[in-house]
């Protein structure tokens, strides 16, 4: 699948919302690479990857591979992988990031069935997290 298809999927919707909500106070969060305070339900708040979607399908939905980034940092500054890596090591530890780089080489085919399974998993996790932090996307 192409990155556009992945980012348009329900799997990405729930995975990225889970990540943003997890690191937030319920509505606001700090960008991992710039320190900017962002509102998680606004378009300028992204879930950025250390190992990019174009590099490995096997790590796209890996929680240790992602963090909060502003649109500017994620899209226009290339995600600042050096800073992102340091932050993810601080959170998850060096061993987890080393394992992430090993998993990067796994073969992974993201077809519609797989994305549906991933969506179900992350929707359940997101809904569980919403019980304690609320759902800022709910209108």
Structure description:
The protein is mainly α and about 140 residues long. It has one domain. It is built from 6 helices and 4 strands, in the order H-H-E-E-E-E-H-H-H-H. The strands form 2 sheets. The chain has a two-stranded antiparallel ribbon. Strands 3-4 form a two-stranded antiparallel ribbon. Strand 1 (about 30) and strand 2 form a beta hairpin. The longest helix has 22 residues, at about 110-135.
**Termini separation:** 31 Å
* Oligomeric assembly: single chain
Largest sheet: 2 strands, antiparallel
Helix/strand-derived category reads: mainly alpha
Number of contiguous helices: 6
The chain-level mean pLDDT equals 97
> Order of SSEs, N→C?
HHEEEEHHHH
Rg computed from alpha carbons, rounded to a whole number of angstroms: 14 Å
Overall 3D form: globular
Note poorly predicted spans.
none
Kindly state the percentage of residues in helix.
40-55%
How many domains make up the coordinates?
1
| Strand line-up in the sheet with most strands | 1-2
Number of strands: 4
Strand proportion, as a percent range, falls in 5-15%
